[in-house]
User: Fold this.
Amino acid sequence: MMLAASLSSGWFLENAFLIPLIPAIGFAVIIGFGRRLPKGGSEVGIASMALSLVIAIGTTVQWIQRVGSADGSSGEHALGGVFGFARSVFPAASEGGKGGEAYVEPVIRSWTWWQSGGLEFGLGQHIDGLAVMLLLLVAFISLLVQIFSTEYVAGDRRYTHFFAALTLFSAGMLVMVLAENMIQLILGWEIMGLCSFMLIGHWWEEAANSRAALKAFFTVRVGDMGLLVGTAVIFFGANQWAVENGSNGFSIQAISGWAMSGEASSSVLFWGAVALFIACIGKSGQFPLHTWLPDAMAGPTPVSSLLHSSTMVVAGVFLVARLYPVFYTGFDIGGTNVNLIAVIGAITIVIAAALAFVQNDIKKVLAYSTVSQLGYMMLGLGVGAWLPAVFHIFTHAFFKCCLFLAAGSISHSGSHHSFDMKKDMGGLWRKMPITAGTWMVSTAALCGVPFFSGFFSKDEIIDNAHNNGYNFFYYVGLIGAAMTAAYMTRATYLTFFGTARGAAAGEHHDEHGDAHADDHADDHGHDAHADDHGHDDHHGAHAGPHESPWRITAPLVILAVLAIGSGYLNAPAVGTHYFTDWVEPRGVAVELESYAGDEGHSEALGLAALPRAEEGYSEGCGYTDPAPGTVCYAPKLNHAKFSWGKAAPSILLVALGIGISTWLSLGVFGGRRNPLAGLTSRFAPARWIHTLLVRKYFLDDLYERVIVRAVAHPISRAAYWVNQNILDGVVNGVGRSGRTAGDWVYRNVDQRVVDGAVKASGVVASESGHALQPIQSGRVNQYGALLFGAATVGAILLILLNI
Amino acid sequence: MSALLAAEVNVAQNVGFYIIAALMVYGALRVVSTRNVVHAALWLVVVLGGVAAQYILAAAEFVAVSQVMVYIGAVMVLFLFGIMLTRATIGAETDLNNRGWGVGIPVAGLLLAVMVWAVIDEFGSSVIEEPAAPMATTAISDVFLREGLVPFLALSFVLLAAAIGAIVLARKD
Amino acid sequence: MYAANFLLLGAVLFSIGVFGVIARRNAVMVLMSIELILNAVNINLIAFALMNDSAEGHVFALYVIAVAAAEVGVGLAMVLMIYRNRRSIALDELSEMRG
Assistant:
């Protein structure tokens, strides 16, 4: 209790729920009045995102102060008796300052949304380092993308709707990020799915776009089943424990505590984790549900940049990171060296990187690159490298967003709305120096060139995989790094160097859309050339490529600076570890009473040195069950210690990848003599591999031809057959036999029996024949009669059986 | 009649019930047999009003008020509008029944027989205790907003969807 | 009061409604007959609520009333549309659904 006073809080931390609320209100305003506003609603979107960003920055600052106050590094906070006692018992911790590790209580607030049957569903906020980091990231990137969009979609016929959907998307993502419970998380998750659908299909007049939107929606829905099932499984597992401790089984905090308590059934944890991970596979484009993400590039480029590279697709990664205790104990990440998350992540890294080699559409290269990098994040979480994975979300958002916006800038001003690198680009670096420069910086960051941000995050993942005993995945990570460097070099060469081709050379060809579609016939033809909808008008005048206006280049430059700078928040090579201190949840047992929901009762019981050194834990959270009366909210994780010697292989491989790829690009695309040029046409195995890659491992064929056609079609055909032959047969048969019976009765009885009775029964028979005949008529009344008659007969049968 | 005079049976209540019930059954028969659509609608008002009266006898005042407001106030007006918009003639018509309407008599008769049999077999002699007071509206609202909240919300969506659907179907394009 | 009273009244109304659904040719009349059926069910629900002295039956009756209102709205809109397209709402002329 004494320590509680030393945990600082503040207005921004307490009111962080405003961050998603503001864009949500902004969305309503845009939808309601956007068309009447002078700028078509975009100013409302930008203003709401800017306001959100301000609050997010305030929240971040106060969170950092809070962490500081927990660590006691500020030195101004009186240390309580318990804390002092603990320090004397654990001398390793008594070095104070950054050496001490105290549990930093998240700022949790919750309001009852509705209750039903004794269950309470809350809305609230769960602000910890992870949430703060993503709040800041999402608000920042959303703002930049909206500024970019004012130029990029200017003059579009659904300009207002575009901004409304973008703003709603940001609100959904922010709701999910600060979700206090699983219901709220699902709410945000589904809002994002909806916005994704609306934005991919923004130019739905083109059939390919609406198909891509539907494909994305349905593919993600397949995974979303897992989210619902997983939430239910975890709820039923955790609820009893949670209720005993003053919460309920939806609360994320309670679920974390339950998963680490050692009282959880391991099979419930395992199957819950598997179900939840299926949702992450769908949302984050992991193998085998990654096929929607490249197709989603049919949307406008800002959408690709915001949703399908830097923020929304990390929702799956976020879910794993948020419920990490469930996955950690469910898959026993600390105790084995292979698990589902790591395997899926590793497969995704390699297959997506390989696919990126054969794409001619610049956005698709970036899309597969995104899939591959998401694989890295998953791999990181799977091998126990929680912090590097989360850090990779952070750095990746900046440089991938920058790359996408640069691609948008190229198509906007350089290649006349084409995204085809082979046809319409080349030699652009002279014409678009700013775009080219920012692209280069971001590419270097993506490839993991030393001293760019990607190096500090990706290398940490690879290094930690090795350190935690996941050796196989260490090699996969290295191979992936080399492949990343190679395909990005190819894309860079095709776009900015070599000879200018097509639109980049100033040719103004209107038929490029058709030729383009032919080239990609097996890609379902939905390439992003559809971007020229609606805003052709202001482009009629220009001839040839030129640099984009400031509203496009300003976000690019800001992002490029961050693509370098963001890495230094946690760069072990230069000795910074702010990110580790601020974001990572401390794996420390705390007293159980402290978590009833209201913050400020934290008492640190166990203290240990911050695991920055390379050390193997064998006790503590995640290894042994917490002592009675205490609870863990996060596993204690190892951190690999950085050294240049260990980073050398990956640096070497990246350099090798860049070198080989440059040499190949010069040979294949640059016209220089080279033994490898034209290999695919001369060497059969190479051609097979090429075909395999171009057809995307035939996964789309598998889904559409085999699964849809072989499963759905026979079922519908069988249903049709049953309908035609059996049901109709029965109905016809009844009608016919009724008629025959009537006729028979009429003929025989009428002729054989004496007059009076004869006529009466003849009429009855004829009536019954007539009554039965219309059964096949399709008339509602007859169906009603059949229904009630059958119900009566059924009731009689039931009564008879009962008596 | 001896049963009616038994001590535990409230005679006045029973007499009221039978009078209203007879009126309702007659009205219902007229609804399905009259040759005039508007008359059928008006006989339906009689039946629905009778149902509301029975609710009051059964101590369900809130439901009775809802019945009057929703059915007699809204649904009947809808019916009259529907009749007006679809039928120019107001007056007797000939072909209001199907050709095969005779089937209805055995089906409905059989259904009635089964239900009467089942009811008498199960509840033939049981007597309902006199309720002390009508069901409190607070009790109903407690159920509505606590255990029944999810169905209540679902129902709101059904009504919304029905309203939108009706507009979409009925508007002239 | 006998418990069977309400239930028997409900049974009679229900059967009359069933007859109406089967016999009537006019779509509006069929909708009216369906209202009879729903009201018969409601009487039973209220009767059971009275027997058990619980509020659940009342709540269910209210649900039924609400659903009936929705059903009438949509049903009459459909009838209206059919009438506009065919100048008739005789159900036996609507046999597009014949199998």
